[in-house]
Amino acid sequence: MTELNLKLSKNTTGRYGEYGGQYIPETLMNELDRMTKAYEHYKNDPEFKTELHDLLVDYANRPSLLYYAERMTKDLGGAQIYLKREDLNHTGAHKINNVIGQALLAKHMGKTRLIAETGAGQHGVATATIAAYFGMECEVFMGKKDTDRQRLNVYRMELLGAKVHPVTSGSMVLKDAINAALQDWTKRVDDTFYLMGSATGPHPYPLMVRDFQSVISQESKQQLQEKTGKLPDMVVACVGGGSNAIGSFANYINEPSVQLVGAEAAGKGVETELTAATVERGSDGIFHGMKSMFLQNKTGQIKPVYSISAGLDYPGVGPEHAYLAKTGRAKYVGITDDEAVDAFEYIAKTEGIVAAIESCHAVAYVQKIAPKMRKDQIIVCTLSGRGDKDVASIAKYRGVDIDE
Amino acid sequence: MSKIAEVFKNHKAFIPFIAANDPDFQGTVNNVVALAKGGADLVEIGIPFSDPVADGPVIQAADIRALKADPDLPMDTIFDMVAEIRKQTAIPLAFLTYLNIVFQYGYEAFTKRCTELGIDGLVIPDMPYEERGELAPIAAKHDVDLIPLVTPVSGDRIEKIAKAATGFIYVVSSLGVTGERSEFANDLSDLVARIRKVTDVPTAIGFGIHTAEQAAEMAQIADGAIVGSACVNIVAEYGEQAPTKLQDYTKQMKAAVVGNPVR
Ligand SMILES: Cc1ncc(COP(=O)(O)O)c(C=O)c1O
């Protein structure tokens, strides 16, 4: 079995070039400071690391498979395609890696209440799961639009013992849920830990989330080495806030031969207003505690975003991605709704895998690029989650009426 | 001494807040002028932001109204409002907004324009002490005060924040977001005392104050009282009659605040 010895990053400044920082109300600064110090301490604490390791292995079902997608490879006729199967984790997505880490930190900090934001509900479900496991109180903030269209996940969170708050301010989606969670936190910092769902927000979140998700690339590097003795030529992952992507990239950033590609949600098209392609369409700004790239207007008002995938429906991107984009170390490409839905059907039919619509943005890019690569080249594509949650909405997209 | 600090010199200060472009350009001008006529010592003009995380439902709603009226609401339109206000009153003014608005306009251009129009201070709730470095030297060059916030949970941070402050220090009355309250943190006197140990920069308490009694109580503790949501509510409720109402309200509040002896 793959030995898990999480390498946690040394960056303690919270800056990635000019990006990152802690642009957050004063009320939260002491708490963030406590969190940063606690994290700096525990990430080097052998006992904490053992606990984290055991939870990842025994509870989350790690390591996840690195699966050689032979049919896809043959069909596309180019590079060899390996899929990193985060969809096989407990709760069905990479989100569990992060919530285990943060909840464990919360427990060690003496917190008894977890709060979280969620878009489609995946992070909310993961948080509710770990809260149930640790016997902690859990409240999840979710835009009213999302609670309406993701009723199953709302019920799932409630089943796990969490309280779900529909957020009715602003555009009633993910960014408004983050606003509401931050506001709740300012009212009650003493016993509460805000469990951020992506590699976004003020320091130390982008760093912590990256560290907890970097298990993805730590495993994939080792697994691919065992299978082929090589490094991949390209790593592809979808980017919402950027947590599965930064985890997929982390252990390859210092390997210059490995191309890193983030697949963003282009919605109806990168050049349209109905898009969530932050890196391609956005610009530098300051929001949700970080300096990074955002979809915004000239004045600096944050724009509403659109994607078929609720998990990629965020008007920003984590600060390390902004930095990787700016320095050219990683490349970000927009994938439209249509392309993602095609990929959803393609991977189901060729490999027998129903992958999350978010992950299918990465798959769609692989479909485009693999045929252009040599047969001795290797792509590792992260399947961030499983697609059961998406089946009904894809059916609807295709005009098929199914009873829920 | 900065123009804002001077406001507090001879008496306790009453500082109302309204959101720009709520309900529209001329309404904003009329409302600020009315606040000045009512005796406000300094007016905070909020620049609407799509996602005002430090604000409660009342001010959020004002921002939404303002942006609905003009979704782009260019910063230059707001500067034009101030220019219009300046034709009618010389009252000290400060902006309250989120850092992205200032960042997009450009720190240099923004603060320069502020000085030209007599905006003497900026309150930026999402720019804590640690992040003020990118704006502070530029603001100082243009004599624009960066007014920091201190909260009941600032703890060991109080001294460094206070020492760097110019203009005044915004003391947050209690945890949470802006909006009317019936109770405040009970250690506000200690908080103000800690600030006064390290600086002469005046203090004003805000978040939740809406009655004259509360304003009087807060002005006893600090050098001034800030009232936001209550003013915004008047604007929302009275529409074109808002200026008269704001002027009356300010008179009352000012009387309650000024009654307290200065330090
Ligand atoms: C399956 C899946 N993949 C990807 C994402 C996007 O998040 P991130 O970019 O942080 O990995 C989500 C978010 O909900 C998700 O559920």
Automatic annotation (TrEMBL), chain A:
Q: Which family does it belong to?
A: Belongs to the TrpB family.
The record's annotation in CDD domains points to: Trp-synth_B (cd06446)
Pathway field of the UniProt record reads: Amino-acid biosynthesis; L-tryptophan biosynthesis; L-tryptophan from chorismate: step 5/5
Names of required cofactors:
pyridoxal 5'-phosphate
- Has keyword Lyase? yes
Q: Which GO terms describe its cellular component?
A: cytoplasm
GO MF entries = tryptophan synthase activity
SUPFAM superfamilies from the UniProt entry: Tryptophan synthase beta subunit-like PLP-dependent enzymes
Q: Could you tell me what this protein does? A: The beta subunit is responsible for the synthesis of L-tryptophan from indole and L-serine.
- So what does this thing catalyse? (1S,2R)-1-C-(indol-3-yl)glycerol 3-phosphate + L-serine = D-glyceraldehyde 3-phosphate + L-tryptophan + H2O
Source organism per UniProt? Secundilactobacillus folii
Q: What class of enzyme is it?
A: lyase
Keyword list (alphabetical) reads: Amino-acid biosynthesis, Aromatic amino acid biosynthesis, Lyase, Pyridoxal phosphate, Tryptophan biosynthesis
State the protein's name.
Tryptophan synthase beta chain
Provide the Tryptophan synthase beta chain-like PALP domain boundaries.
60-385
Any Pfam family hit: PALP
Give the superkingdom in one word: Bacteria
Q: List, alphabetically, the PANTHER family matched.
A: TRYPTOPHAN SYNTHASE, TRYPTOPHAN SYNTHASE-RELATED
* Quaternary structure and partners: Tetramer of two alpha and two beta chains.
Q: Which residues are modified to N6-(pyridoxal phosphate)lysine?
A: K95
Give a yes or no for keyword GTP-binding in this entry: no
The EC designation for this entry is: 4.2.1.20
From TrEMBL, chain B:
Q: Name one GO molecular function term.
A: tryptophan synthase activity
Q: Which domain of life is it from?
A: Bacteria
- Keyword Amino-acid biosynthesis attached: yes
Q: Which UniProt keywords apply?
A: Amino-acid biosynthesis, Aromatic amino acid biosynthesis, Lyase, Tryptophan biosynthesis
- Pathway of action: Amino-acid biosynthesis; L-tryptophan biosynthesis; L-tryptophan from chorismate: step 5/5
Q: Catalytic center at which residues?
A: E44, D55
Catalytic reaction equation(s): (1S,2R)-1-C-(indol-3-yl)glycerol 3-phosphate + L-serine = D-glyceraldehyde 3-phosphate + L-tryptophan + H2O
Enzyme class, top EC level, equals: lyase
The record's Pfam families line, in alphabetical order, gives: Trp_syntA (PF00290)
GO cellular component annotations, sorted alphabetically?
Answer: cytosol
Write the Enzyme Commission number(s) for this entry.
4.2.1.20
- Could you say which protein family the record assigns here? Belongs to the TrpA family.
Function as written in the Swiss-Prot or TrEMBL entry: The alpha subunit is responsible for the aldol cleavage of indoleglycerol phosphate to indole and glyceraldehyde 3-phosphate.
Q: How does it assemble?
A: Tetramer of two alpha and two beta chains.
Name of this protein: Tryptophan synthase alpha chain
Query: Which source organism?
Result: Secundilactobacillus folii
